[in-house]
Amino acid sequence: MRMIISLILFPLALNVMACGLSAQVPGTPAPGAPLPADSPQETAAPELLPRSDALPDPAPLYPNLSKTPKASRPAVSAEAAPAPTPYVSPEERRVIQQRLDKIRALASRNPESISLLKLASTALSVEARRNYLRAYYVTVCMRMRQMEPRLGGYIREFERERIRAIGRSKAPQIPTHSRDG
Question: Which end of the chain, N or C, is less packed with Cβ atoms under 10 Å?
C-alpha cells in the first residue's frame, strides 16, 4: 500500500517542483503574458546564402577543344592538349626493348629490389605478396629511370603493365630473373 501511494505522490511532487522552479526564474514572462515593451521585436533573418545571380557560372564538364571558342566554354591551350607520339620503327622498338631488358636485369640486382622480392616470396597472404611485388616493381623502375632517363615513357609503360597484372591475378607470380645480362 505504501508503494502505491509513493508511486502516485512522487510524479505529483515532481510536477509541483517543476512548476515552482519555472515561476522562480527571474526575467521570464509567464506563458501567455504579453512581452515587455523593452524586449527586441522580431528582426529580419540574416541572408546566409548569396543570391543566385551572384554566383559565377559553373565550370564546363568538357573542355572546349574546337578552334573557335564559345562564350560559355573557354578554349584549351595547345600546351594542355597531349602531344602526338612519334612513329617508332620496328627496328628501333627492338633496340629499345633490348636496352630495357638489359637495364631491367641490372636494376633487379639492386639489393633493395632483391630484399623486396624475397619478402614477396615469403609473404603469408596474397595481399601482402601483391604489396611487396608493387614495391619491387616501383623500386626496379625507379632504378631503371636513374640508369636510362631518356626511356622514361617505356619504363612507365612497363611499370603500369606489371602493376596492373599484379592486381588482376588471383595469385601473383614472383618474377624469376636469369643471371646473364
Answer: N
Contacts of 81 (CB under 8 A, 6+ apart): 65
Strand partners, 75: 64
- Residues 6 or more apart whose CB falls under 8 angstroms from that of 145 comprise 151, 152, 155
Query: What's this model's pTM, rounded to 2 decimal places?
Result: 0.49
Tell me the HSE value of 5 on the side-chain side, using a 13 A CA sphere.
Answer: 2
What's the length of the chain? 181
Residue 74 neighbours by CB under 8 Å, 6+ apart: 64
Specify which residues 67 forms β-bridges with. Answer: none
Residue 120 corresponds to which amino acid?
A: A
How far apart CA 115 and CA 129 sit, in angstroms, is 13
